[in-house]
């Protein structure tokens, strides 16, 4: 089943004669449970694509369809609700709350939304991500790789339809990067979690199910179906 789809997606910044065509007609389909890596040089449009997929910004033209719903025409208010219900974000920086322990950080977005924590699911995530021993620790006592695993657990805990990761291994050494990728891969398999990840690291990208390459706002090749 297709969970995420773009049709002739365009995002232009600025005005003539200085228009930057950050995305210039992107057609993309991601299956439910698929783990996709988006690669490309700096300025090729990766971040812009992720912002469109996650409803952080609006397209100039074209469609973004998530779970059968076209989000491209939504108002800011509708997009805020859409993001809360459907999208998990993971960034290069972990953005953990330093005075809250690992468990508290993971359930914080659920509690802020006034929802009930699904304890079994959260425990399952914590165990799967290898954080059981660290539940009561403060973020500062963890390594970078461990902190990123907490950030991933926090994103997963809200049961998002799509998980979007922007350079999740950008601050990590090779060993921790592979560790974090292992965790992402496991969640895509075990929880059938759809993941779209930006990376400029080709070796890291190889660990995804599929690689999409962007150049000058266009998809240039699709390779690596496993
Ligand atoms: P990448 O993530 O691959 O580095 P981006 O999506 O950040 O690429 O940027 C694609 C192009 O769009 C670049 O030329 C960048 O400078 C431009 N761009 C991105 N965001 C903005 C913005 N808010 N305003 C103007 N230009 C932007
Ligand atoms: P990344 O390192 O993930 O590619 P960037 O450094 O390209 O991110 O962009 C960081 C933020 O700045 C994004 O929100 C992007 O939209 C914005 N941005 C990027 N390029 C420009 C630009 N030329 N003018 C204004 N904003 C920009």
TrEMBL record:
Which keywords are on file for this protein?
Answer: ATP-binding, Nucleotide-binding, Transport
Domain annotation ABC transporter: ranges: 4-226
UniProt xrefs under SMART domains? AAA (SM00382)
Report the InterPro entries cross-referenced here: AAA+_ATPase, ABC_transporter-like_ATP-bd, ABC_transporter-like_CS, MacB-like_ATP-bd, P-loop_NTPase
Q: Which GO terms describe its cellular component?
A: membrane protein complex
Gene3D superfamilies per UniProt: P-loop containing nucleotide triphosphate hydrolases
Any GO molecular function: ATP binding
What Pfam families has UniProt attached to this entry? ABC_tran (PF00005)
Q: By its UniProt entry, which PANTHER family does this protein fall under?
A: CELL DIVISION ATP-BINDING PROTEIN FTSE, LIPOPROTEIN-RELEASING SYSTEM ATP-BINDING PROTEIN LOLD
Q: What is this protein called?
A: Putative ABC transport system ATP-binding protein
**What organism does the record attribute this protein to?**
Lutispora thermophila DSM 19022
């Amino acid at each position: 089943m297709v969970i995420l789809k773009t049709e002739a997606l365009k995002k232009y910044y600025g005005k003539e004669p200085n228009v930057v065509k950050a995305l210039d007609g992107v057609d993309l389909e991601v299956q439910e449970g698929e783990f996709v890596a988006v690669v490309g040089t700096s300025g090729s449009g990766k971040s812009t694509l992720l912002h469109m997929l996650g409803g952080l910004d609006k397209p100039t033209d074209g469609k973004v369809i998530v779970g059968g719903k076209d989000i491209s025409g939504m108002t800011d208010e509708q997009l805020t609700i859409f993001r809360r219900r459907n999208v998990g974000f993971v960034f290069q920086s972990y953005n953990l709350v330093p005075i809250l322990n690992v468990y508290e950080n993971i359930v914080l977005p659920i509690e802020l939304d006034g929802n009930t924590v699904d304890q079994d699911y959260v425990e399952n995530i914590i165990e799967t991500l290898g954080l059981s021993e660290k539940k009561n620790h403060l973020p500062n006592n963890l390594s970078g790789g461990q902190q990123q695993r907490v950030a991933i657990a926090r994103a997963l805990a809200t049961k998002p339809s799509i998980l979007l990761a922007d350079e999740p291994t950008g601050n990590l050494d090779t060993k921790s990067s592979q560790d974090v990728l292992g965790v992402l891969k496991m969640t895509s398999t075990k929880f059938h979690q759809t993941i779209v990840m930006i990376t400029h690291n080709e070796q890291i990208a190889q660990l995804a199910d599929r690689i999409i390459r962007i150049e000058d706002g266009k998809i240039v090749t699709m390779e690596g179906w496993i």
